[in-house]
Amino acid sequence: MPPRPSPPAQLFPHRLPRPLLLPVTALKHLREQVFLAGDEGWTGEERTDIGGDASVSPTPTYIGCRGWPRHRVRCIAGDADTTDPSSGTSTSLRDWSSPSSENTSDGETEADVETRGLAFFAEMATQAASPSKEGRYSYEEYKETADWLLANTEHRPMVAIVCGSGLGNLADLLKEQVAFKYEDIPNFPKSTVPGHAGRLVFGNLNGKPCVCMQGRFHMYEGYPLWKVTFPIRVFHLIGVQTVIVTNAAGGLNEDYRVGHIMVIKDHINFPGFAGQNPLMGPNEDRFGPRFPPMSDAYDRDLRKLALSASRDLGFAAELHEGVYCGLGGPSFETIAECRFLNRLGADAVGMSTVHEVVVARHCGLRVLGISLITNQAVMDYNSEARANHEEVLKAGRESEKMMEKLLTTLLPRIETNNNVN
Ligand SMILES: O=P(O)(O)O[C@H]1O[C@H](CO)[C@@H](O)[C@H]1O
């Protein structure tokens, strides 16, 4: 029998810092019987007989175990990965597996089993104590992704462009492309919204090295805000200095029409009012200060550049500068909400952007925001209009060329100074 890893003593805290959670789906391939019990009993779904071919819920269900170290771990073996769908992290069980045995009768003693089980729990406890389990990524995870990207492409982008709904084709502007699917990039969340392809595209846009997010993450997809904003910090670590956030938005300002462009002057972070700010939780000083100002969120010089580029292109009639209000979604706004937001001073409304901007400013990135007005918010009780995503995507496609021209004209005018090797 191959030697079993023995758990280092320091990995055994007196108590787990928080309930230990194991996804049941992770255990469904286990070939032996697992008995778990904690001194405070079970949390979550009660199961004491997971293993073998026992049918377990195909949907991710969590079992939790409080109390340490009084778990009774009879045996853990198998060849499965634990994947936590909420964090995307995965832990291999293979290290603790019994390679040949189907049960404990292959000479493995009770003590062997106990050691192996405890080692497994020690690993899980370490994970539970790691920052990424505290509802955020660790600095090392951002770094891991940044290093992976730098190792897999020679591009060194100075500008990152986040493509809004229906605006993913902006990435096609990039020459000498190197593209990665989000699912292939370590730690990256997955795109789930139609119109957000889920690819990170590197290349040169009119001579300027860029990276394009063909698809962003939204709060309404169920992602916590530290996940929604994950790529922004990665961009910072790979040397990006300027982020251009684009979005599809509903026009609240009565002068705005479908197909108009709004250079974002400022935003209202509505989820922030309710305590949903991506910077909640322990501050990571390596990215920025605890209390970053937001009064200069949208760079004045970049706004001027965008406005002058739009005018040079003859877009003056379709051009505005205004305030974007970010909501949680996914439901579109009621008439009363639209009226309320408009009175608050918002010119356009959407379900994204503000979180990315807060995180970008926290780590010192310059931000330019551009909204494409894809629909007029319904403000009138006699209106038959109903906001819908298809209309949003259609408007995006119809104004694609305009947005492309704007970015192509704008990009070479942006001064950048990339110091990353
Ligand atoms: O903000 P982007 O991602 O452009 O998308 C906007 O369009 C979608 C609604 O149609 C929402 O996701 C809203 O936020």
Structure overview:
With 421 residues, this protein is an alpha/beta fold. Helices cover 25% and strands 20% of the residues. The strands form three sheets. A five-stranded mixed β-barrel has the order 10-13-12-11-14, surrounded by four helices. Strand 4 and strand 5 (90-92) form a beta hairpin. Helix 3 (139-152) crosses helix 5 (230-237) and helix 7 (300-312) crosses helix 11 (400-410). The protein starts with 19 loop residues before the first strand and ends in an 11-residue tail after the last helix. Residues 164-165, 193, 216, 218, 247-248, 329, 350-353, 389, 392 line the site of 1-O-phosphono-alpha-D-ribofuranose. One of its GO terms (molecular function) is purine-nucleoside phosphorylase activity. Residues 159-411 form the Nucleoside phosphorylase domain. It comes from Pleurodeles waltl.
Short description:
One of its GO terms (cellular component) is cytoplasm. The chain has helices at 24-27, 110-129, 139-152, 225-228, 230-237, 270-273, 300-312, 335-344, 354-362, 389-398, 400-410; strands at residues 20-23, 42-44, 62-65, 81-83, 90-92, 159-162, 175-181, 199-205, 208-214, 242-251, 261-269, 319-326, 348-350, 366-376. It has 421 residues and is of the alpha/beta class.
Outline the secondary-structure elements.
Elements: E1 20-23, H1 24-27, E2 42-44, E3 62-65, E4 81-83, E5 90-92, H2 110-129, H3 139-152, E6 159-162, E7 175-181, E8 199-205, E9 208-214, H4 225-228, H5 230-237, E10 242-251, E11 261-269, H6 270-273, H7 300-312, E12 319-326, H8 335-344, E13 348-350, H9 354-362, E14 366-376, H10 389-398, H11 400-410
Parallel strand pairs: 6-9, 6-10, 10-14, 11-12, 12-13
Antiparallel strand pairs: 1-3, 2-3, 4-5, 7-8, 8-9, 10-13, 11-14
The structure holds 1-O-phosphono-alpha-D-ribofuranose.
Pfam family, one: PNP_UDP_1
Keywords: Glycosyltransferase, Purine salvage, Transferase
Biased composition (Polar residues): 93-104
